[in-house]
Amino acid sequence: MTTEQGPNRSRVRMYLGLVLTPVVIAGLAAVVVPLFPSSREAEASATMAANPAPVDGERAYGYLKKLCALGSRPAGSEANTRQRKLVAEHFTRLGGTVKEQPFRGRHPLTGKRVEMANLIGSWKPEKRERVVITAHYDTRPEPDQEMDPVRHKLPFLGANDGGSGVALLMELAHHMNDLKTPWGVDLVLLDGEELVYGNDHRAGDYFLGSKEFARRYADQLEHGRPKFRYVAGILFDMVGGEKMSLPMEPNSLRFAPELVREVWGTARQLGISTFQFSEGREVLDDHLALNDAGIPTIDIIDFDYPYWHKADDLPEHCSAKSLEEVGRVVTAWLQIPRKTSRRR
Predict the structure, then answer these.
(1) 3-state secondary structure of 44
(2) Using CA atoms, how far apart are residues 207 and 15, in angstroms rounded to an integer?
(3) Backbone angles phi, psi at 27, to 5 degrees
(4) Which of 54, 65, 181, 196 has its CA 20 to 30 A from that of 338?
């Protein structure tokens, strides 16, 4: 991911390859709701009794350490493939219907073909109205924010940036069969989020997995009667930092304001203060491609994590408590009592 604001953050990326449809242009041109709702408004929007699943933060943290033990996991690598297989077996064991969504890219330095794949674990696959909860599972090829040339060559394990989102999806899989939600749920691992070397966009591309996922989803909507429709999407990105802060991401507020209000309102009812009623940094991330495909999607992200794209993005700088808090909020939100399902 990247941001367009703030010190020590790259501004070089445009949202490469995303066609700006009228939906996106309209969102950029004008915000039809206040930039962020007051806590009272958010609580009113949630209108439910918070009932989270018994999310186990220590178990999620154990998954994070297991993923990092595989080493650096950039798109197309052996470790990346091993990780995908590990999570696929985990989802299957816990009752998910698992499929891969293969696609190809080009290595930014060699030009060779890179085989990639998104991984989709589905619960209640018969449900036509669905929610997608997603995270990228590839790691950046190098810790590009390291100024020291020696540390720049150290492996990037991506404990928080990549590992935390996958670990939390693995923990959520334990609870999918028991959630009282009106929707089917797809837990999706996205590949190729940043197959990039350095900060020059000519040396790679961003958000390859989410673009492919969005393209396929849009295709099934356009050709005949769609088999299913996503009513909402949630992206996890850096949700495990030990001193986590989760303000409302501006692009999420533009494109899915109702969903932001519901999720942050749920956190308020649970007394989880890491979800802050303030505007954070504007982030270009995987949620943009999903919004462009018609899926109202928000980014839950701690972009002030001090080890972003550094060699010290390690498990010891992550927290079981942070993972548990995000998991509790999302599982409670999934179980909001509703007379009818939300529709876009």
Answers:
(1) helix
(2) 9
(3) -65, -35
(4) 54
Half-sphere exposure of 69 (CA within 13 A, CB side): 8
For 97-151, the pLDDT digits (tens) are 999 999 998 887 777 889 999 999 999 999 999 999 999 999 999 999 999 999 9
Q: What's residue 106's pLDDT?
A: 83
Residue 297 tokens, joined: 């999607």
| Dmax (CA) of the chain | 58
343: left (phi over 0), alpha (psi -120 to 50) or beta: beta
Contact 10, 282 (CB under 8 A): no
Place of tokens 């941001």: 3
Asked if 149 contacts 304 with a C-beta cutoff of 8 angstroms, the reply is: no
Q: For the chain, give every domain's residue range.
A: 2-334
Instruction: Tell me the mean pLDDT in the region 225-243.
Output: 94
Q: What pLDDT is recorded for position 220? A: 85
Given pLDDT bands bounded at 50, 70 and 90, which one contains residue 94?
Answer: very high
Q: What letter represents residue 103's amino acid?
A: F
Give the end-to-end CA distance of the chain in Å, rounded to a whole number.
26
Which residue's entry shows tokens 């001090």? 306
Please tell me the distance from the alpha carbon of residue 161 to that of residue 307, in angstroms, as a whole number.
Answer: 9
CATH fold of 2-334: Aminopeptidase (3.40.630)
The angle at the Cα of 191, spanning 189 to 192, to the nearest 5 degrees, equals 150
Pairing label, strands 97-106, 113-123: antiparallel
For the chain, give the mean pLDDT.
86
If 0-12 CB within 10 Å is exposed, 13-18 middle and 19+ buried, where does residue 184 land?
Answer: buried
* Average pLDDT score over residue span 5-32: 35
**Burial status of residue 224 (CB atoms within 10 A of its CB: 0-12, 13-18, 19 or more):** exposed
**What is the Cα gyration radius of the chain?**
18
CA distances from 255 to 89, 200, 301 (A): 34, 28, 16
